[in-house]
Model the fold of this input.
Amino acid sequence: MGDLTGQERFDAIIEADEKVEPRDWMPDGYRKTVIRQMAQHAHSEVIGMQPEAPFSCRSGACASCRARVMQGEVRMDRNWVLEEGEVAAGQILSCQAHPVSDTVALTYDL
Done:
């Protein structure tokens, strides 16, 4: 990948279904929208990729980690703050979300 642009290297990583690391070049906005095959708590996965991702309580009580599911499906352990309509619209608390589908895409850009 020697003479490739940042975008070309990034596209090759995604195409190969490899992990994008925090030190890797990413297109504008990618850090706000995460598309990954998550094998653990969604928030733990996000913090591994985006150390600056929003969070506070990690117990489902503050909504600092509020995100929207753009692709796939998750289930939440607890939810003390989101209204029924917000959940129906795809909003989740990433600190309480576990992937149900193989691939999950989240955005914090609400």
